[in-house]
Sequence to fold (580 residues):
Amino acid sequence: MLHGDVGTELGRRVVAALRTALDVAITPAEALIRPSTRDGVDYQCNVAMSLGKKLGRAPRDVARDIVAHLDSADLIEDAEIAGPGFINVVLRREWLQQQATALLGDDRLGVAEAERPRRFAIDYGSPNVAKEMHVGHLRSSIIGDALVRLLRFEGHEVVPHNHLGDWGTPFGMLIEHLIDEGWTTGSEHTIGDLNGFYQEARKKFDADPDFAGRSRQRVVLLQGGDEHTLALWQQLVDESTRHFEKVYGLLGVGLTRDDIYGESFYNPRLPNVIDELEAKGLTEVSDGAVCVFPPGFTNREGERLPLIVRKRDGGYGYAATDLATARYWTRERGATDLLYVVGTPQAQHFAMIFAVCSKAGWLTDEHHAEHIGFGSILGTDGKTIRTRAGGSIKLVDLLTEAIDRAATVVAERSELTADQRAALARAVGVGAIKYADLSGDREKDYLFDWDRMLAMDGNTAVYLQYANTRILSMLRKAGEEPAAGTPVHLTEPAERELVLKLLQLPAAVASATEVYAPHKLCTYLYETATAFSGFYERCPVLAASTPDEIRRSRLVLAKLTSNVLTLGLSLLGIDAPERL
Ligand code: ARG
Fold:
C-alpha cells in the first residue's frame, strides 16, 4: 500500500516521464498535481503550462510528451489532455479499491513518518504570572498544542516550552503587596482573582510613595537572590501555575509544570549572552543602553532599529531573554527548529531576534526559526472581545460558558448519566472553541460567535463529532465491525469520491505541517464528512436490497471515515465522543 500522498505518487510518475521525454528535471511537487473538481476526473496535472513557457514550446505539446511517456501501470486509468495543456487523470478503480482495502489495517491511515525527523522546540502558552490568562493566551495554547500533536504524529521530536512571564520589575510591587496581605513562606496561599491582585498592587504603587520605594527595594533583593524574597516569589509563581494548569486541563492542552521554562530560567544566562555578543563585536552603546542593530530593520524615518539587550539601568529586558532562549534551545538542547506561537504584533520582535541570533551564530543554516503568528479574537461587533461590562474576558469564564452552552446541545440525551452528559458537554464545548480557532487562517483575526461555533451544520467541531457518532451508530446497528482485509468494491461515483478523499489524509496532514496551518486539516475533515454524507445519501448500506458484499464494503468505507475523522480531530486536540 502507498504510504504518503496520491498526488505525490502521480507527481513522481510525471517527473519520470519528463526526464525520459524531454530530459527535464523537476521535483514531484513541481509537477503541480491537484485534486480535480471536474466530474469524472480525479487529479489534474498543470505542469505543462509553465514548462511550455520555459521551453518555448506549446503547452499542449509538452502535455502530449508527458502523457506518451507516463508509466500508468496499476495506477492510472486514463490521462487526457484538456484545454490549453492540462492533463486530466483518472485513477484505476482496482488501485483505489486495493488502497482502501489496505487502509483499514493501518493505524496511521496512510500517513508516512518523516524520513528525516527534526527536533522542534516550540514556545507556546506563555502566560504571565499574577495575571489571569486572556484570549491571546488561549489562541497560543490551542494552536501550539495542535502543532505539537501534528508534528509528533509525523515522527518529529517535539519539546514544548512555556515561556512564562515570571521575572522583572513588576515582581517588586507584587511581592510587597503579598507581604502586606499577610503571606508567609510557610503555607500555601490562593488568589481568587489574579487580575484584581495585580491591579491592587499597581494602584498602591502609583498612589503610595512609601510602597513604591519598598517595591523598588524588593526588586533589588529579588535580583540579588535574597532567599526570603525568592521564596515569596516562588509562592506567587506556584499559585499562578496552579491556575494555568486548571485552564490547560479544562482545555485538554498538553502543557504541564515540567514544560515551564519561564523568563526567570534564562535570567542567570543573560550576562553570558551579552558577553558573547560583545566579544563578537555585535553590540553598540546607544543612550547608555547596550544594543544590537540587526541589518535591514529601520523605522519610518529610516533610522536603524535597536534590539536593547541591556538597559541603561543595567537591567535586562524581554529581548535579552529571547536571545538567551534561542541560544539555549539550539546550543544546549540541540533543537533544529524553533517555533514561537505568539500573536502577530510581535512579528518584528522575533524577526529581529532571529537576525541577531544568525549574526551571533546561534542560528545557522541547519536551523529553522519561525514566528507562528496569529490574529486577535474579535466579538461579533468586530472589536476585541470583552465582557458585557466592558472588561477583558477571563479564559476560565469563557470555557465555562462554552461547556454550559454545549450542555444544552446534549441535554436531550436522557439515557445518559449526569457524568456522561458533563463529559459530552465538555467535549463539544471545548471542541467548539478550539475548532473555531483552528479552522481559520491563523494570521487573520477571527470572530467569536457562539451560535456559529456550536452550529450542527457547517465547518464546526460538533458537525464533525456528530458525523462520526452517526457512523458509529450505524456500525453498531450493522452488528459487525468490518475486519481488516475486507475487500472494498467501488460501484457508485459517491463511493469513489469518498475513497479519493480518505486517501488524501496524508496530503492534508503534510500541507498543515508544512506551513504550520492547522486550518488545512480542518478543511479536509469537513470535506471528508461532506463526502460521507453524499455517499450515505446515495449508497444504501443496511437496506435489505444491498448485496452482502457491497454492504460489507460500504461498512469498511464508513469505518474508514470514522477513523479519519477521529484521528484528524485528535491531531487538533479535539475529542471525538462515541455517542452524541
Ligand atoms: N508572556 C508574553 C505575553 O503574554 C508572551 C511570550 C512569548 N514568548 C516569547 N518567547 N517571547 O505577551
Notes: The first helix runs from residue 6 to 22.
